[in-house]
Protein 1
Amino acid sequence: MPALTINTDNPPSDAPSSPNRPPVSPLTPPLPAAQLPAAEPTNAGSRPNFTHSQPDQTGIPPPAPQPIIFDSNPDVIALKSAISILQIQRQRATADIQALSRAKDEAVQDPEAFINDLVAGKINAPASGDSDSDNDDEEMG
């Protein structure tokens, strides 16, 4: 493959050069740099003493704590209600898991009977009103 070479010589171009820049004055005249006063040696005794003419501030004491009445506090009532609902849901979930485990064990022991019951429509999810009872053991047996 042939090599590619680039000529880097600067031949005189026929194009005219850029025009010279016109003189420009700054919008804001430049200022000389700021000069700090000469630093004098500082001694601890030569420092000025500053004092406050205002008296010390005093804070307002916090209000006295008020006892919480748990029987009438809406947050406590809502929390107790939520805990009760969660406990009921936990019991239902535990019962459902146990019922499914029993159904699985019965289906593994006798797969043909399980298929026959499934085709006959004997195996289905409990109705929404039936899931409240704790007698799920009788439905699968």
Protein 2
Amino acid sequence: MDTLAPLKRVSLDEASKQTDAASSTMSSAQTRVAAPLHQKESLDQSEHTRTAGEAHDALEAGQEKPVRNYRLHQGTNRFCLGGRLMTSGDSLLPLIGSSLVAVLMPALFWAFNGAWLWTELGKGGKASVFVFLALVLFMWASMARTALSDPGILPRDLDPDPPQRYLEPDPDDPDSTGQWIVEVKYVQVPGKGYVASKWCPTCHIYRPPRTSHCRLCDNCVERTDHHCAFLNNCIGRRNYRPFILFLTTAVLAAFYAIAFTLYHIVHALTAPGSTGWRWDTIGALVVAVFAVLFATPLAGLLAYHVRLMWSNRTTIELLRPAALRGGLVDPSTGLPLLVEEGGTDNPWRRSNPLGNVKDALGAPRRGSRKAKEGLGVKWRDWAPREGAREAETAVDMRPDAAGSAVEGQPARV
């Protein structure tokens, strides 16, 4: 179990709210609801939610047998192996296609180049084959870990009854009606200013900074970067490191295949007694073309993420309008704080770019609780209790956990 101290520190490095915050923040910086939450049974009642509720009721009725947490999960994710592996509930076809490509490229390399390297180039050729095999194994392992692991899903119902206030109707607008709005909490970024922590009406939690709700997975994910359709999973705090490792090893393996394929073709065509193009050299040319097509988009994506890591940004943050990328707000008004007003275009960027890379790749990872056993009521009522180890993560993932935030007051972390 992670200790409380690093969790408090980590809370500033979570993923940012998605681009829909750009328009809503400029108007009111508030999350709008139609009625007080305590007058509703649920904001987003779904069949899946009701199923989870029935499981809770059964446990409260006296069932003693622990239930794995993934069985009470209310998102759209699919689980297997007792919750140890998970993927998005979206279509699996892109993931299947990506997996086939990741297997086909090494298979073609071995069929047309590997055997030739192994038999014709002696120890050097055998060493080359082993290096390529190591790159491919790392690529497969990191791809599987990225696609099938918890990206950093936050538990639900940490803030089921958020503070609200009633907004009076506009007297100048005859069609205006009063409405309840959920209060926004503010988290201080040391030396930079305040960022908004907004309440998620689906997950019933205050989102930590840099956290977004994925509409495809129906979860709030820590430090969300993007949802990858080809891996069928969100890319967030817990799987960003293996995602970068996957891109790196895939690009290296593709370039490695291109280099040795060209060497094979040139050697076969220029060797004494060469008979010109043979079936293996024609196949090697096919491998080279396939590897170029495989490497080009991945190399571009890797370069893009190196740029993001160098400046300590996420894809969601970069896609926001320029005026809202910084995310700093004036807690007295709730409006975005522009650069010319004393804000910054990126409150998370450190002076040392290597520190930015370390934040992205080396930050502590909160352990996933999806596959762990526990009474279902603990998942629903995950609240701070004296001596309750199950509540430690929930306490420190709240924006006001490390400070003394109350309604209308900023929270310090």
Protein 3
Amino acid sequence: MMRVLVFVTVVTTVCTGVSGAADVDPRIARLESAMLRALGMTHRPRPKRGATVPRHMLELYGRQEKLRAQTAGEQSGCQFPDVTVPGNIVRNFKGKYHDAVDPSPTACSSQGVTYSVSAVAAEEFVRSAELRVPIPDDPRVWSVAKAYTVSVYRVLQPGKAASADSLELLQSHVITPFDRDDVKTFNIVSAVQHWQRRAEDNHGLLVSVEAVKAEDGTRLDSCPQFSITDAELFVISTDMQQCRSRDKRSARTVDSSNGP
């Protein structure tokens, strides 16, 4: 594998030159194209400079690398539900936030958010979809309530004014001071799978926050400091065709330690 990577680097250097200008030599272009196809790629990666990698993506990469080292030499297929299987596709989506009317009279804060999952192809199998909500560490949040209940709903009908009939509860969590400055995950895989099949039904999510009653029995009517505008959608899917192509390539792996 190392030999293949070095060869691709050489081809790229010859093709682009020192200045990065494209070389028009068709032989080099065909050679590069063949090497990329052998690696299961259709074009050269062009990462954006200065892009910020989400923390949980780095954590997933670290776990993958650790497990890959532990299972070196073992045959690995594309099986469910192991998140380290070859062929997995991991995506991180940023949401578009908008005001939403929460029908619950006990909610102290609510936020509408929409995630476009059009990048998930129809042939992919969505195995995991987590809404990751960072829990604030603001002392003002915890000085007024001992706990909060955060609920995530799928909006079934378009419109700013939601009603109980137009919402589907996906998951709720009770948030305590022990969760402060952490991330709480909500399982919304059923919603993402539905949006993948029917994009026209994607009317977004409603994230509702309710303050648990204090010792004296009072309930907060407002909790603006409990911000939920930094939530991110983390989706893991698998393209079975990609799994088969990777298995096929692994069967032709050459041991570089034995020489050319």
Protein 4
Amino acid sequence: MFRYEVNRGRGSRRLVAIVSTVAYLGLEARSVEVQCTLVAGLPAFVVVGLPDKAVAESRERVRGAIAAMGLALPPKRITINLSPADLPKEGSHFDLPIALALLAAMGVVDAEALADYVVVGELGLDARIAASPGVLLAALHASGEEKGLICPAVQGSEAAWAGSIEVLAAADLIGLINHLKGTQLLGAPVPGEAVAAGFGPDLAQVKGQETARRALEIAAAGGHNLLRSWSPLNGTHRERLDDFGFRCLEHCGGRASRLFKQQLTSALGKRLPVRFRAKDGLSADRTSCPNGSLPIAESVVQSVLMTLPKRSAR
């Protein structure tokens, strides 16, 4: 999309190319406008709008990707503004929207063709579009805004889980530009096969120990810390706690269910990693914990559970 600003000093108009993207705040995707202007002055490439280190370094990746396409940046002052300016911008997924906004300002691509898309993706120096975290959240956000999504080709099947939205999954910047110009057609991705990662032992196999099992269920549902301080709560319970959180996700609706599908169809094809929480600090070990107790493993997925069906203790 193009926007014109009036330069009152000279009475001329300055062109601002705009591309839509998102910033991630936990499990929420916030709308961000990538605005690009080319003005006369000493050649420079500036990114403003509260970017972190990864976003600030995007100018070098964008510069290298454009050079790999055989194009040169104009000898002007290039300013990239990430609006709203008070929202922190983190992650390498800003590379692709910054590059497209710059190419639109240069006249290489039609900015109006990008107005109906949310863009995410990391760029390599060879103009390839690499995977970036949070594509499914960006796709859900684009669906709510009634827009399509431009994302890396390797994550097209993941973005397709968002529903009936147009997904342009490109492997490189040249292929994406050719598609926008109508000289090449990118195939529509389909949702990937949900291949289960293989669950371990079931908590239902533990006989008795109603109090201990109930404590495990509450800890898994709420993402709470759990400290083992008596012998019956041993490795048998610990193995089953990790898989209990994943089984609960299958019965959850809304965003938690979509996140479960995301981890089933991730590029790695593996379950999300397991993290350990210690009540007295991350450095707690068997020596520092009383009675030789250690924290129970919790899945990263369990921390995003909002609602769980009631489960009676056996």
